[in-house]
Amino acid sequence: MMTQRSPRETKMPRTLRLAAATAGAFLPIVFGASAASAETRGYVVSWFAVATNNPDTPVNCPQQAASTNKVDAYADGNQDRRRRDTALLDGKPVPAANYPDLVTKDPGMETVVGKYAYGFDLGGSETNKFIDPETHEKVDNQLWRAIGCVPTFQYTPPALPYSETAPWGAMIDTSPAYTIQVTGNDLSKDGPVTVTLDRTLRHLERDAAGGVRSGVTYVLDPSPRSHNVLTGEIKNGVLSIKPAFIYLVGNMPFYPQIDLQNAHMRIHSEQGGKLVGYWGGYADWHAWVYTFTARPGAGADNIGIYWALKKMADVDPDPKTGENRKISVTWRLEALPAFFATNADGKIVATASDEGLGGKILTTPATQKTASADGVKK
Amino acid sequence: MKVIYRGSLVLAIAGAVSLAGIGLQTLANAASPAPASADTPTTLRLTPSQYRQSISDVFDSSIKINGRFEPEQRDQGLLAVGARTENFTDSGFESYYHIARGIAAQVVDTRHRATLIGCTPKSAASRDDQCAASFFKRVVPALYRQALNEAEIARSVETAGKAADQLHDFYSGVRLALTEMLVSPKFLLRYRNMEAAADRPGQERINAYDKASQLSYFLWNSTPDAELMRAARDGELNTQKGLEQQVDRLMQSPRVADGVRGLFADMFSFSDFESVSKDPAFFPRYTLLIKEQAQEQTLRTVVDHVVNKHGDYRDIFTTPNTFLTMDLAALYGVPVVDRTENGQPQRWVTYKYEDGNVRSGILSQASFTTLWSPSARTSATSRGKALREHILCQRVPPPPGNVEFKFVDDTGNPEFKTTRARLEAHRSEAMCAGCHKLTDPMGLSLENFNSGGEYRSTENGVVIDASGELNGKPYQGPQGLAKAVHDDPAATSCVAQRAFAFATGYVPPKDDRWRQIEQTFSQSHYDVMALLRAIALSDLAYSRLGV
Q1: Contact B465, B476 (CB under 8 A)
Q2: What is the domain count for chain A?
Q3: Substitution target from B446, B455, B467 for chain A, most A beta carbons within 10 A
Q4: Measured between alpha carbons, how far is B362 from B368 in angstroms, rounded to an integer?
Q5: Closest CA to B325 of B347, B303, B341
Q6: Is the dihedral of CA A76, A79, A80, A84 positive or negative?
Q7: Which residues in chain B are closer than 8 Å to A341, comparing Cβ atoms?
């Protein structure tokens, strides 16, 4: 396979190979001259979506589980449909799905009451904390609490939430990809690294099975808009970053932008060098709602989702209204090995590798598959 | 050969398009088997690539050819030889008919009619014999590759006129007449008519127009252009000087690359890619696009080496220079920078491997390693057989009917983890051992490339032993194989034979004229262009062959 080196290639130590590949002008900008011996591995994000965790619906969403009419249970309850779907703009009725903040009545959509969700401890309120099923730490993820009872989000990794698959699929065939570069002196060992996020100029390439093809060479977008340089660390094969601000331009119908404050990251390598893990932080809840409701296929639950996020938003109060403007979120991502080149001179600045970060090929913890009814690993 | 159209279907189609009495004489005539005699000319059915290129040249490259061609037969290693013995089945003829209808409809559609018809009828609702005649005078000789035949023109004009009268549409009339021409054997078959040589009493030579056709399809893989037809008409092709002028003109044209591509696509059996599929669960990088790009990579590599650089033919097996796309580069595990804008097709990029890389040369390219592998595993035997037959022109006997594949297919057998081990077990059966000695040592040296064309160093956890042997000389790995083939005299002899057969439809007789061609090739340091020129100028290529 691609990432298995030919005998000729393997004769050259990895550090030398990559040092040669990264000897262009790019690295000194990022790391300074001391990074001359560093190696950089490249990855393209091949899956990106809200981190869902729904091993057992009755535990997370008991009303829905008890109801024979699941639409009513999560979306409405007691109101009649006509009233719920109507909003007034300058006194004239307009589709509620397009103007959710003009619908003044909260339909009372059910939200998650279970204990477990993926995420990070962002320093939020203790009363809102979930337990992360992998790390077993207390985490903030109010987005999941708000939307976890929407059936199209009720999936557990590695199953992909239905709500995100269509827009993601549309995006990867048309829009530039997100990239991750991991740079360190020896990525086969634990240690400090630099994580650089960018976009490519071209869309992702598909493979024969309809997935994303690994080992492709992409040219990095030279625009600074989506260029993020983060300080990170590999420990026991898990990559993390120091909390930072992440901004990536996106495209509808996926996300018009990824705008994450107090961003955290937890990623490990799996078979073939694929990265699997989570990003978390605080995002603008209005932006999330409008992104979701603008996607093709979004519909009856829009108003309920709007109100749920409005209620669950946990930080950044508006000075005038006092309402929180940001909500804790976690995204699950996968990324495949790729080569990256600069647009200016075509120099290769990151290489594809099937080797694990920190020298470790890990597997996704079996937590999701064996979670009991209350989400606890047995 | 006998031209055989199965009658019933042809007549049915002829009736369907004849519109109440418009005679499609060609179709009806074609339905009757041609008489077989010693004077029956050799015919060669146009290959799909020749058909496509001819339509593009006679009309326009924007004319789409939709439909499936009659399956081709490979004989003596080439479809070009098999073309000599191909007939038209009912279903095959139906395919040609549907393709012809599609082409004719495009030629007269509103997008193309102004430029391709070349005149405007007095009324679009009725016949205009003058306008139709001007169109057919241009098209008939180009499609039939023969001298302008006034009777032929008149018949096409009459067919178009009658149809226009009945359909009240000039363009429909032209469309029907053109459809008829495109299913005519005069278009679908190339002829090698022999005639008495006026300047050499007692000797015969190929008809000048047929000579023009042979030359053009050999060097351009397409129908003769107007200048070549003029040279045929004026008798210049029957003189050595005139022939040289035309051959050099054709070879100096960039279109000679099309002829070289046609030759090597046939020699390397790329038509067999139609039936190649890989299990996406095992080989996700092997997409439909890769299948096309793999062939294109090899053809670009060959054309660049032999046409642009006039390189030694043998070096195509070892050259580090090639062309890659983003997808192919990903398959091969190397970076290739394509700065094409988002949404645009991938482009081809020149690529040079470092010295000694296992990917150097065409044998390690996906066009070879994937074509000669089953869908989910490699086959050292198939690869070795293909090397013998397609690269070295050596024949490998077919397996016996009762061959037992129990060891070869059992890729999960813990006792035989590698292809080499499985084949060793297979060869332990005496009836298998003989032929496998011919094929397996060569094929096993490509075991580092899996069925999907990707590099691998292990199989089932065991490090792959890619040692091999050719002509009693052992070597190591793909580079060793490339060097061994490079140094094997059979490789140059083979390409020379294939080039001659591609030109004529016949394997060359081993006489002095052939030896002269081989000597010219050798003295040119195996410059394929020199070989093609020698064949194109040789009397041998235009003599009665196969007798």
Answers
A1: no
A2: 1
A3: B455
A4: 7
A5: B347
A6: negative
A7: 335, 337
Asked whether residue B453 falls in the same domain as residue B514, the answer is no
Q: How far apart are CA B377 and CA B391, in angstroms?
A: 22
Q: Same domain, yes or no, for B473 and B357?
A: yes
The verdict on B291 touching A (C-beta cutoff 8 Å) is: no
Helix (H, G, I), strand (E, B) or coil at A177: strand
B 449-508 residues with CB < 8 A to A: 450, 454-457, 477
Distance CA B294, CA B284 (A): 15
Q: What is the pLDDT of residues B216-269, one digit of tens each?
A: 999 999 999 999 999 999 999 999 999 999 999 999 999 999 999 999 999 999
Model confidence over B145-159: pLDDT tens digits?
Answer: 999 889 999 999 999
A203 within domain boundaries: yes
**CA of B38 vs chain A CAs: smallest distance (Å):** 53
Closest Cα in chain A, distance from residue B73 (Å): 30
Beta-bridge partners for B44: B190
For residue A187, give its domain range.
7-370
What are the tens digits of pLDDT across the range A79-93?
Answer: 444 445 567 778 787
Strand partners, A278: A266, A332
| Domain limits for position B214 | 193-253
- Residue B118 neighbours by CB under 8 Å, 6+ apart: B134, B135, B138
pTM, two decimals, is 0.85
C-alpha to C-alpha distance for A165 and A176, rounded to whole angstroms? 17
Residue A261 CB neighbour total at 10 angstroms: 17
Instruction: Report in angstroms the alpha-carbon separations of B301 from B263, B287, B313, B323, B478.
Output: 14, 21, 11, 7, 18
In contact, B367 and B270? CB cutoff 8 Å: yes
